[in-house]
Amino acid sequence: MENINEIDFSSGFLKEYKKVQERRLSDLREYFYDKKAVENILVNQNPIIYRVYDVIYDYPGGLSYSVTELMPGKVGNEYYFTKGHFHSKSAAEIYIVFKGNGILLTENRSGDTKTYNMYRGSTINVEPEYAHRSVNTGTTPLIFLAIYPTDAGHDYESIKERGFSYLIVDKNGPTLIKNDRKNLEK
Ligand code: PAN
Ligand code: ZN
Q: Please, which of 38, 56, 159, 178 could form a disulfide with 64 given CB 3.0 to 4.6 Å?
């Protein structure tokens, strides 16, 4: 990958990328609260929830970036979201939003939660020790750039097991509700 690339500011898409990851509902089974709603949808479709276009500079001290295209939609009353992760190393990240509307949900290992509105032009500092999940609360794709140290590392396990402390659901509009984690009880 060359050192220079191009972002179309009106669409938010990259001209070049090294790889694209596609996440469908079946890849996010464990992540949505309402498991019944997940299975009901999967009976006859497996919608794309998001795609991530990666540009990676893999050398010591290198930075990488990616553009995420997060679709609009809901599972039950929970808005579509990215899996969410901690960085394995203590590494911050910068998000810049090009299109759409959403909420960036972040929380540290003690459960301290901070949310940020995502809208065209919003530029957000994600603190090193905070897990982060983007939530599309709008009706159009949410498209944003994320820049992070290449060696940050992505730790998905704890979020996959426990989820975030809050869910973002549609209750006459986007609303933060406490995650009672009852869906995890056997
Ligand atoms: C982002 C995310 C991207 C997809 O580039 O990786 O939005 O979210 P998940 O990785 O949680 O599936 C980022 O935060 N990179 O560090
Ligand atoms: Zn990240």
A: 56
